[in-house]
TrEMBL record:
This is ADP-dependent (S)-NAD(P)H-hydrate dehydratase. It holds the Pfam family Carb_kinase. Keywords: ATP-binding, Lyase, NAD, NADP, Nucleotide-binding. It catalyses: (6S)-NADPHX + ADP = AMP + phosphate + NADPH + H(+); (6S)-NADHX + ADP = AMP + phosphate + NADH + H(+). HAMAP family: NADHX_dehydratase (MF_01965). Belongs to the NnrD/CARKD family. InterPro entries: Carbohydrate_kinase_pred_CS (IPR017953), CARKD (IPR000631), Ribokinase-like (IPR029056). The keyword Endoplasmic reticulum does not apply. It comes from Furfurilactobacillus curtus. AMP binds at residues 188-192, 216. Its cofactor is Mg(2+). (6S)-NADPHX binds at residues 42, 103, 154, 217. PANTHER family: ATP-DEPENDENT (S)-NAD(P)H-HYDRATE DEHYDRATASE, ATP-DEPENDENT (S)-NAD(P)H-HYDRATE DEHYDRATASE FAMILY MEMBER.
Length: 279
């Protein structure tokens, strides 16, 4: 099947005006898990993006070293030590959308956290698997739960997960491996592709001004926020991918580099534009 572009029409169908009779519970409980002692910034950026993307209630489970920094930047987030596996399981089970992996790391503690999350998720939950969580699944050959799975690998992470070297990552090979894995695959690169069943979408936007650590962590948080709010999971993911790079392209008109946190701050303005009736 031909590769389809992600279009603004998909965003207009997805990001709708909020009903007046609604509350934070209407817009989803997002739980994000990651950020070890070395990579605290990754989970802070993912959490920031989920909140700016409109998640109703956001809880982050991370290494205790990151709690003060996250609270200082995002008081909207609730924060818990990810070593408390009982609480991790409880919070994960209560979530609509889970994001696991930004800055999680790949040591034994990280593996226990990931295994606890994967054991607790259920079919109705969205689970976005990013960064270190992809690496752990690949290196430990972990079995995947029945849930609405979304993987967000860059090309090297896709190599580890699929076994396809970057030069083997052709459309036909990618589709075959994506179907074997199941779920939605966001293959991040210059023109990011989104694979679901037999369909492949390509993001028309994106700029090398985005090549800054944390840019993918930000996308993972946006995917968490959008999948919590918008029922059509494929359209939610396509919308997150499109807006993420559209903001970057707009900022890059006048800026040599675009920071991940700058993207997050712009998300509500772009969502508003897509939610307005077309004149
Ligand atoms: N501030 C923080 O806390 C941050 C924390 N972070 C966290 O760090 C963890 C590890 O994630 P990671 O992505 O940094 O490392 P890894 O998976 O080894 O990938 C890099 C290797 O892949 C290769 N490569 C090939 N193609 C590529 C492509 N298209 N895009 C990207 N890379 C590509 C690349 O090749 P190179 O050209 O550099 O030789 C290199 O060999 C993860 O949990 C993440 O969330 C980061 O987000 C940074 C900010
Ligand atoms: N040259 C580029 N053109 C378009 N998008 C890019 C470019 N370089 C990086 N990006 C985007 O930035 C993000 C990088 O993701 P990732 O490597 O996971 O970052 P990190 O783990 O540091 O947060 C992806 O969304 C990717 O599409
Ligand atoms: Mg990444």
């Amino acid at each position: 099947m031909a590769i389809q572009p992600i279009t603004e029409a998909i965003l207009r169908q997805t990001i709708r005006k909020r009903p007046a009779d609604s509350h934070k519970g209407t817009y989803g409980r997002v739980v994000l898990i990651g950020g070890n002692a070395r990579y605290g910034g990754a989970i802070i950026m993912a959490t920031t993006a989920a909140i700016y993307a409109g998640a109703g209630l956001t809880t982050t489970l991370t290494d205790p070293l990151n709690i003060t920094a996250l609270h200082a930047r995002m008081p909207e987030a609730m924060v818990v030590d990810f070593h408390d596996l009982k609480l991790l399981r409880e919070l994960t089970e209560a979530a609509n959308s889970i994001v696991i992996g930004p800055g999680l790391g790949t040591d034994d503690d990280s593996l226990s956290v990931l295994q606890t999350v994967l054991a607790g998720v259920s079919v109705d939950q969205s689970v976005t698997i990013d960064g270190s969580a992809i690496d752990l699944i690949a290196s430990h050959d972990l079995s995947l739960p029945q849930a609405k799975l979304i993987f967000t690998p860059h090309e090297m992470e896709w190599q580890r997960l699929s076994g396809l070297s970057i030069s083997q990552q052709t459309p036909a090979n990618n589709t075959r491996l994506a179907q074997q894995l199941g779920g939605i695959i966001v293959l991040k690169k210059h023109h990011t592709q989104v694979l679901f069943e037999e369909q492949t979408f390509e993001n028309p936007g994106g700029t090398p001004a985005m090549a800054t650590g944390g840019m993918g962590d930000t996308l993972a948080g946006m995917v968490g926020g959008f999948t919590a709010q918008f029922a059509n999971q494929l359209n939610a993911v396509l919308s997150a991918v499109f807006i993420h790079s559209q903001i970057a392209d707009d900022l890059a008109h006048n800026a040599y580099v675009v920071l991940p946190t700058q993207i997050s701050e712009e998300i509500p303005w772009y969502m508003k534009q897509y939610s307005l009736p077309q004149s």
